[in-house]
Amino acid sequence: MSGTFVGMPAFPEAAREAVGNPTLRGNLRHATHTIRAKRAKAVAELSDWAALREAGKQIKDHTLRQLDRYLVQLEESVTAAGGTVHWAADADEANRIVTRLVKETGESEVVKVKSMATQEIGLNEALEAAGIRAYETDLAELIVQLGNDRPSHILVPAIHRNRGEIRDIFRAEMSEWGRPAPEGLTDTPAELAEAARLHLREKFLRAKVGVSGANFMVAETGTLVVVESEGNGRMCLTLPETLISVVGIEKIVPTWRDLEVFLQTLPRSSTAERMNPYTSTWTGTTDGDGPQTFHLVLLDNGRTDTLADEVGRQALRCIRCSACLNVCPVYERAGGHAYGSVYPGPIGAILSPQLRGTQSEIDASLPYASSLCGACYEVCPVAIDIPEVLVHLRERIVEGGPVTRDGNKVVLKPAKGHAAERAAMRAARWAFGRPGALRTGQRLASRTRRFHPRTLPGPGRAWSGTRDLPAVPAEPFRDWWQRTQGTIGEGGAK
Known about the structure:
The chain starts with 10 loop residues before the first helix and ends with a strand. β13 and β14 form a beta hairpin. The chain is of the alpha/beta class. The chain has 23 helices and 14 strands.
């Protein structure tokens, strides 16, 4: 299995296959229910959770409105602290920059901190093509890499694997990447963790180059922040001589005081902890302490275009906690691979189509990968109204197709599909705008209800194939109201 998502089918097809896998569904159900229960308990401990949530939203919105100013401030701060800042417009440019920086060190391998941004741009594959091997050091990412697999969760990339599967992967693959798994390895968590620790230790001690992302960047000081639970990230951030961090431009917070809010909400929303066991911060370079060369690669890759969408831009508030995945009934059943992106679940359904565009079949299908139940919005620590954005993207896909940039104006290209849906919406608009026609249609529907089919013909068959058509009442509401309550005029009930 390829480690990338290139060539994945659209969500409905991928989800249909995933739902038929009972092992996958069992793994997902157990993991998501456990995490969501722990999160709810951790959040309930804070009496001011709603205020923290609103504060996080306000900080993010303020920063996004003035992103240009804070990016310049961040660059100045990082440079003053001894770091070097690089700007990458897209994935290709970011990969070229990182590859060049690694080659300039003369090294042919790097150790990596878990990073969504580097997965987004396919950095491991780009480095491999240049003869550079990237070693994932996060336990779940290690499992995914050794298994030549794809990540399926933002926080726990190997959530689709159970302990027996992990044991088999370690036994079969560790020797190809370095120190082999111990003889007689069982599937107990302690033994699996120790096998990973022994396997990674030699890489930590040998590596001269580390690659990371960052959870936050503080504009006023140029400080980067990584939060984690295992300690592998701190090893990557402190032991190598050179550190290269690839970070999305939306990860900025203006001040250290702003950071305080997220250091309370992120751990509770992600790992259900009061604080992360390891919170690492670094500001440029310091003689004799940590990496002596630091490079920050600021990644756009569709974020500027997303920022231009007044409704969709709220997706850029995301702090990658994964709380929305753990409560989503669709994710629980379909799993993360069905989304065809490193960003699965509800947040992926609104973030991926905006970062990548909706030209591909899979990206055009993602806004429909939801029941719109709203559970994701209720748990989001920065109050992203994911259902609102989903509906907005659906409208954009149906009415206009993909969005392109024309100077400062957003231009909608005509969509090729969804003709039946557009026709139905136009017919509904015509009927609702003419009370007389609507009244006649309602009475006709009730009097012919015996002849109504149980499934829809033509394009409607896809909708009714998985749903029961609602029964038409024996009497229209207008007639019932007139019979029981009084009279009805053209404007409605009186």
